[in-house]
Amino acid sequence: MIVKIKKLSEIAVTPAYGKTGDAGMDLTCTSVELDANGNYVYRTGLAIEIPEGFVGLLFPRSSNANKSLMLTNSVGVVDSGYRGEIMFKYKPNYQFFLTEVDKRHDKIYNVGDRVGQLIIMPYPEVVWSVVDELLESDRGDGGFGSTGV
Fold first, then answer.
1. pLDDT tens track for 84-121
2. Burial 80-102 (b: 16+ CB within 10 A, else e)
3. What is this structure's pTM?
4. Quick check: 27 and 118 in contact, CB under 8 A?
5. How many C-alpha atoms does 78 have within 13 Å on its Cβ side?
6. Cα separation values, 147 from 62, 114, 138, 144, Å
7. What's phi and psi for 43, nearest 5 deg?
8. Does 2.40.50.320 match the CATH number of domain 4-122?
9. Are strands 16-17 and 4-7 parallel, antiparallel or unpaired?
10. Between the CA atoms of 80, 82, 85 and 89, what dihedral angle is there, to the nearest 10 degrees?
11. Distance between CA atoms of 54 and 51, rounded to whole angstroms?
């Protein structure tokens, strides 16, 4: 699949797969700022044109386990009609900061760091059919730990 990409910054890095077989492409930070709520906003300096029928999903990288940051919306959704800059917003984990105050700046991402990953995938267009009954299943209506695991 060919996806058009526009660099909005001279230091923007084209997304790339880290290894053969990887699903996510790494995205690199071109600037970082704090928003009014104390969240870190990481800009990538990139805008993309995702084809209709596809969606871009933004995830933290596995290295995020070494940071004291949590992606604010868990998974970012980049719709095919969005043409703005790809950004990540991370919320500081203040409990971690309180125990590691002197190491705070080692626990965040900086300009030039890979701050997240992008997966582009197709999605179905859903048409709802309102019914009075649903088919039975082994699970039924059990949720939130109903499998006993």
1. 999 999 998 765 555 555 454 458 889 999 999 999 99
2. beeeebbbbbbebeeebeeeeee
3. 0.82
4. yes
5. 22
6. 27, 37, 10, 8
7. -95, 145
8. no
9. unpaired
10. -90
11. 6
